[in-house]
Amino acid sequence: MSDKNDEKKVTPRSQDFAAWYNDVILRAELADYSPVRGCIVFRPDGFAIWEALRDELDRRIKKTGARNAYFPLFIPESFLRKEAQHVEGFAPEVAVVTHGGGKELEEPLIVRPTSETIINYMFAQWIHSHRDLPLMINQWCNVVRWEMRTRLFLRTAEFLWQEGHTAHAAREEAERETLTMLEVYRGFVEDFLAIPLVVGRKSAAERFPGAEETYTIEGLMGDARALQCGTSHFLGQNFARAFDIRFLDETNQMQHPWQTSWGVSTRLLGALIMVHGDDQGLRLPPTVAPTQVVIVPIWRKPAEAEAVLAAARSARDQLEQAAVRVRLDEREGLTPGFKFNDWEMRGVPVRIEIGPRDVASGEAVMARRDRKGPEAKQKAPLAELATRIVALLEEVRASLYRQALEWKTANTRQFDDYEAFRRQMAGEGGGGMADIYWCGNAACEARIREETRATCRAIPLNQSVPAGRCLICGESASERAIFAKAY
RNA sequence: CGGGGCGUGGCGCAGACUGGUAGCGCACACGCUUGGGGUGCGUGUGGUCGCCGGUUCAAAUCCGGCCGCCCCGACCA
Q1: Residue whose Cα is closest to the C1' of B74
Q2: Same domain for A312 and A166
Q3: Domain housing A463
Q4: Judging by DSSP bridges, how do beta strands A350-354 and A293-297 pair with one another?
Q5: Which of A31, A33, A125, A333 is the most interior residue, by most CB within 10 Å?
Q6: Mean pLDDT, chain A, as a whole number?
Q7: Nucleotides of B under 7 A from a protein CB
């Protein structure tokens, strides 16, 4: 009896987080495994989330002045070698094309793991004068990184992303751009995806290969592990030098421009799932939900069906006119209870139930996915449904953010005792975020990593903390850092 | 690449020790039933048992080789 029921359910999140994560993705039909190891197939619901996310972020990026362009998938192998740190960082994971048209290529081509090199090659040809600056380009594309271990959305051999690349006349301008985009990401992820973040600088060890400074937004997943959700890099003049990008400034001096790059990827879908999901399955913020509202009609006798369906269809039309992504579940042979569970598993933010009793009273039941039990349900007059739903969707979004923030706050701890920190990180799964004084020394960072498997996720910006002592070596430390076990 | 495990209808598994008609649950199709929290019953579709070879009257089962996948470690948005 209960066995039979279990087969219909996803593995409870509380029982096995990793199994739950895979279950939810496959059962909610967001994605599927591909015949190629490490690659992922985006199914329509998964891709619709990506599209919603992409469209909104695209708007926000364009608002900053960047424009979209597209560069080739293939890059001459020699390009990668031009920047020392860059090649060191990416060489182990690039896919290389050696043959084309039945012949061995004179120079192998790499499949882009990121586009710094080819974009900077083009920048060198487009930038001659300070009047050509700033040059701000964004690209939506796929990239390939041959990972040893992959996980759906979080780390796949091929993934979709957005990469911005900018060149500026002055160092300060590029530094400002790096932080501007970091703030665009923060606002986007916190407001639109309802995921609370830690915003900060990366340690030298965690820095992007070729960058002078890397900034990050870090989220805390439902298993108390951290996930890097986006990065913004200040590249200095490293790539400008490597690719000989030069311009004449106002005083007729030859200069290398100062550059940035920044990106977020389909990994954000993994973050959405792991931050908001629960034992029943997905919980999607209405902003990205492919279906924001599902209407489940309920009736007993054929005579009732007609009136119920008429009311349900009218509700659907009303919501469509209010630009709500609504779906009426008219499938036959399935009980309402089954449909409730099915749509909850798929993360639909709000469900509307319309039955004979509602038709009689001119109301409908609205059930919100972010809450459980009777308090999740409320009635609304059919005549006011659209306005009530629009308001409720916004409430759900805000509520999901609040819940995620509570979790993050509850799992962020300050430590001034290394042993206590170690105990917190011990065992399987995450240990939350540890907020500690760190002297900045790589040796201390390495020791933490070895002994606790936690890594430096971010050194938060704009700290105004009194000077303290490094948790590891006891030397003086002027900043606190967030360490956590991460994906 | 090191350690562990697994390959049997779409999914999850049993059968293997002791060779003899390939089975169960879910899913799927159809019908009836049911319907305000995963209805119930019936009928039915679907499998070269990962691949190659060997032993045998007979191999999912025994033997040899190969391939693939998953989990754990070293790299990472």
Answers
A1: A148
A2: no
A3: 412-484
A4: parallel
A5: A31
A6: 93
A7: 1, 25-27, 32-40, 68-77
Q: A221 in a domain, yes or no?
A: yes
Burial of A317-331, coded b for 16+ CB within 10 Å and e otherwise, reads ebbeeeebbbbbbee
Nearest amino-acid residue to B12, taking CA and C1': A7
pLDDT of A443-461, one tens digit each?
999 899 888 889 999 999 9
Residues A374, A243 within the same domain: no
Per-residue pLDDT reduced to its tens digit, A223-258: 999 999 999 999 999 999 999 999 999 999 999 999
Under the banding of pLDDT at 50, 70 and 90, the label for residue A1 is very low
Q: How far is the CA of A3 from the C1' of B20 (A)?
A: 34
List the A27 CA – B51 C1' distance (angstroms).
Answer: 31
Separation CA A372–CA A374 (nearest Å): 7
For residue A201, being part of any structural domain is answered with yes
Lowest mean pLDDT of A3-7, A42-46, A290-294, A425-429, name the range. A3-7
Dihedral of CA A409/A10/A48/A118: which sign?
positive
Domain total of chain A: 3
Q: Do A212 and A158 belong to one domain?
A: yes
Distance A42 CA to B66 C1' (A): 33
Q: Where is the domain boundary, A363, A392, A421?
A: A392
What string of DSSP letters covers A309-365? HHHHHHHHHHHHHTT--EEE---SS--HHHHHHHHHHTT-SEEEEE-HHHHHHTEEE
Shortest-distance nucleotide from A301 CA to C1': B35
pLDDT at A119 over 70: yes
CATH number, residue A347: 3.40.50.800
At A81-106, the pLDDT tens digits run 999 888 888 888 888 888 888 888 99
A449 neighbors A455 (Cβ within 8 angstroms): yes
Tokens of A287: 């902003």
Give the residue with minimal CA–C1' separation from B37: A337
**CB neighbour burial string for A107-124, b if at least 16 within 10 angstroms, e if fewer:** ebbbbbbbbbbbbbbbbb
